[in-house]
Amino acid sequence: MKELLVATTNQGKVHELEKLLESVTNVQLRSLKDLPDLAVAEEDGATFEANAIAKALHYCRLSGLPTIADDSGLVVDALGGRPGVHSSRYAPSDAERIAKLLREMEGTDWPQRSARFICAAAFAVPNPEVHIHTLTTGILEGYIALEAKGTFGFGYDPIFYVEALGCHLAEVPPEIKNTLSHRAQAIAKLLPAVTEYFRMTL
């Protein structure tokens, strides 16, 4: 069976991507948890796209497997775009990142609490030589809520209010989140290329 590497160790992201990629049949998904000896990719790009490309190329080169890598984060207008590409490193844990962001947003009126999740997804393939096959992006608009709510999802989901849903992103189950999230949008755009690649190589 052919294998597809999902370049992340984040279990929440792995589960999300497994659902989003379930239509790619006869392909076994692997994550970086399955390949612990691979050197970690540098994530020092100035944009989500640059980081996604760098990670996809790095892990495709080391593993020899077709690789999907994404870089995503939260862009908050009132904070000049922070945490942005540093979203996952803004503080040591999800709870601390949320607490830090809520502190920074104290006293900010609702209209100024606008924010968006952005995801860039890159698909790298090893043949004829390692290269980026496809790059896509997805965006989910919302607001930074006044407090955390919900138990679904991960990361900043508990404080991200989505007007179209009328609730926080962490208040909706994965099957709903996976119809509209920034990552769902990016992967949906990537899916035809991934499906076609494996159809041609099986």
Automatic annotation (TrEMBL):
InterPro entries in UniProt = dITP/XTP_pyrophosphatase, ITPase-like_fam, RdgB/HAM1
Q: Cofactor comment in the record?
A: Binds 1 Mg(2+) ion per subunit.
Give the residues the record marks as binding Mg(2+).
42, 71
Q: Which biological process, per GO, is one annotated for this protein?
A: purine nucleoside triphosphate catabolic process
Alphabetically sorted, this entry's keywords are: Hydrolase, Magnesium, Metal-binding, Nucleotide metabolism, Nucleotide-binding
**Its job:** Pyrophosphatase that catalyzes the hydrolysis of nucleoside triphosphates to their monophosphate derivatives, with a high preference for the non-canonical purine nucleotides XTP (xanthosine triphosphate), dITP (deoxyinosine triphosphate) and ITP. Seems to function as a house-cleaning enzyme that removes non-canonical purine nucleotides from the nucleotide pool, thus preventing their incorporation into DNA/RNA and avoiding chromosomal lesions.
For this chain, the family text in UniProt reads: Belongs to the HAM1 NTPase family.
Q: Could you tell me what this protein is called?
A: dITP/XTP pyrophosphatase
Q: Recall the taxonomic lineage recorded for the source organism.
A: Bacteria, Candidatus Sumerlaeota, Candidatus Sumerlaeia, Candidatus Sumerlaeales, Candidatus Sumerlaeaceae
